[in-house]
Structures are given as C-alpha cells and as structure tokens.
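Pipeline run #58 for the internal structure catalog. This entry was flagged by the ingest filter as a single-chain record with no existing model, so it goes straight to prediction. Upstream metadata was stripped on purpose; only the residue string is passed forward. Reviewer on rotation: M.T. Logging verbosity set to normal.
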Amino acid sequence: MLLQLLLGFLFAALIAFAAYRAHNLSKSGAWGALLEGTIIFGLGGWK
C-alpha cells in the first residue's frame, strides 16, 4: 500500500511538473494536480 502511494505521488509529481513547465498549469494548479493524482493513482490503484 505504501509503495503504491509513493509511486502514485511520483507519477503525479512528474505529470504536474511537466504541465507546469509547459505553462498549462499555474503553481496552485500543479499542487492541486499533485494532490489529486496522488489520491487517484496511490489509493485508487491502476484499474
């Protein structure tokens, strides 16, 4: 469970950072995407 949450955080961070660098998200939008992505990927699983 902890590994899945960590991987979810890493994937969400990578996607949020890339979107922020491409000027598709603001700083607060990137933080929101990171939080939501961690919850979805980390706790919801891959299915």
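catalog note: The chain has one domain: 2-44.
catalog note: Residues 2-44 form one domain.
status: ready for reviewer M.T.
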